[in-house]
């Protein structure tokens, strides 16, 4: 699904140029669950954002489902993103002015799904994430764990091939964190490919494979023996 070769990304500010990714090679097969780990500032989010087509690399190749996407313009990337990719972030990134229902409905509006179908899909995914009883609430009226379940509902309502998660349990207590990891594992077992950035050793055990980044480079890769373990 993902094939990245000799990828480089640098950021230029007024005085300095930071090389965030330096010659990264990475393959992710359909159906895999991959964790990316490494110290703060090593390039994890930059890599995830490029995989998620939120940003372009400076050099190298990125093939998504056989198509070169690293050099696409923003509007072309948006087109591929919609429907194919779902995002989950540490800070949930829900829209405060919209209700739970409306937050989850938004990606379907972008895809021009008609109203009756939207309602059915949103209700179904809210049930599944056990948050249907809060559909009229606003994000600020929910606990962190509930907000992340809404964010996951929003990420999966379009039935994406790939879910990208950047420290999805970073702001959660361990009970809610484990619940989120179990939800991601379930989605993976149904065939959704997952790439997740994490600081947590516990969370990394849910992945099939762990990639360690250091200073913008992949330094080690390890295969987890137990696949999809439930703690
Ligand atoms: N938009 C940006 N502008 C300038 N520098 C950035 C930007 N995004 C990331 N960086 C720099 O790139 C490096 C990698 O950042 P990041 O990918 O966010 O690391 P991580 O997620 O592993 O903590 C850091 O040195 C960071 O300061
Ligand atoms: Mg980060």
UniProtKB/TrEMBL annotation:
<dbReference type="GO" id="GO:0005524">
    <property type="term" value="F:ATP binding"/>
</dbReference>
<dbReference type="InterPro" id="IPR015854">
    <property type="entry name" value="ABC_transpr_LolD-like"/>
</dbReference>
<keyword id="KW-0067">ATP-binding</keyword>
<dbReference type="InterPro" id="IPR003439">
    <property type="entry name" value="ABC_transporter-like_ATP-bd"/>
</dbReference>
<dbReference type="GO" id="GO:0098796">
    <property type="term" value="C:membrane protein complex"/>
</dbReference>
<dbReference type="InterPro" id="IPR003593">
    <property type="entry name" value="AAA+_ATPase"/>
</dbReference>
<keyword id="KW-0813">Transport</keyword>
<dbReference type="InterPro" id="IPR017871">
    <property type="entry name" value="ABC_transporter-like_CS"/>
</dbReference>
<dbReference type="Pfam" id="PF00005">
    <property type="entry name" value="ABC_tran"/>
</dbReference>
<dbReference type="InterPro" id="IPR017911">
    <property type="entry name" value="MacB-like_ATP-bd"/>
</dbReference>
<dbReference type="GO" id="GO:0016887">
    <property type="term" value="F:ATP hydrolysis activity"/>
</dbReference>
<dbReference type="InterPro" id="IPR027417">
    <property type="entry name" value="P-loop_NTPase"/>
</dbReference>
<protein>
    <submittedName>
        <fullName>ABC transporter ATP-binding protein</fullName>
    </submittedName>
</protein>
<comment type="similarity">
    <text>Belongs to the ABC transporter superfamily. Macrolide exporter (TC 3.A.1.122) family.</text>
</comment>
<dbReference type="GO" id="GO:0022857">
    <property type="term" value="F:transmembrane transporter activity"/>
</dbReference>
<dbReference type="GO" id="GO:0005886">
    <property type="term" value="C:plasma membrane"/>
</dbReference>
<feature type="domain" description="ABC transporter">
    <location>
        <begin position="2"/>
        <end position="231"/>
    </location>
</feature>
<keyword id="KW-0547">Nucleotide-binding</keyword>
